[in-house]
Amino acid sequence: MEMTxxxxxxxxxxxxxxxxxxxxxxxxxxxxxxxxxxPNAAITRENTEIDWNSLNSGLGQDxxxxxxxxxxxxxxxxxxxxxxxxxxxxxxxxxxxxxYNKVQIYAEENSESSYIFTTTNESGCAGLSALQVKVYAxxxxxxxxxxxxxxxxxxxxxxxxxxxxxxxxxxxxVYISLGGNRVYAGGLIDLQGQRSGMDAKIGYLGRDDQHxxxxxxxxxxxxxxESNMEISGILRDQAFKLFRGTIDFLHGSSGAVGNEKEDVLxxxxxxxxxxxxxxxxxxxxxxxxxxxxxxxxxxSMLFYLGSRGISKEEAERIIAxxxxxxxxxxIPDEAVRKEVEVYHGGL
Length: 347
Fold this sequence. Notes:
Distance between the termini: 33 Å
Order of helices and strands: EEEEHEEEEEEEEEEEEEEEEHHH
Number of helices: 4
């Protein structure tokens, strides 16, 4: 299949070659059998009568088409249920195939729930890891998503999030990307209801000749909606990264606020770092902010660490680890946090 993914809501100059990404020869063999831990009875595995294909996502419609034949794993959260114990959804690949898993979360009014998604593989395996998570958050519902992508370089990756928020609902995402070869990740949250919210914290490490391509969109439709995107990454060796971040204020989003902040640490002279911050505005009374910090390690810091017997390479590793550890600490499961720490410590 030929796919067009991570498409900007409004195109920029075509000559930049950053409006979208096109990939070819994508095939799916099956869904991998996930290991799923559901720790409480407030979350059931019931299907819901939602037109899930109508929910937009970061990678876009071609991701829906690719997974059209895949049966979804469904989660249904009851009204007024507040549970801190997360659902843990593990994909641990043990052979060489292309897998697509689909997750649908229906959160009823005033509920709270958390979900952790981990992708790992056994040694010697290769293929495609495709994962799509869609969320429908009813009035006042709070949904938190945590992703730990810990695959080998033998894997290409398509990881996708789509969400729809009614009044006072919110979807929070933490995405940590440490592995893979060609990594395509995205998220789009429709803030339809008044005072609904989106929060996305993205962390990545690009190394060797890794290719990372991301697209995150906050679509403000309701009044007084809020979005926040924080992106923190490290690029080293010959790694490539393209980040698209869009705050889209549609008509009717009066009083909305959107913030986007990116912090990229460049280690080495051969990395490629590309960013498109985009603020679209069809409403007057809104506030959109974007900030970026892109740079290398401070020479005075390197000198200080060197005077204490720490080499430049070790200093780079320590600082990169600290960036990832900050995000890792947000994951509400000790075992998963340990997995991330062990994986990152071996890089």
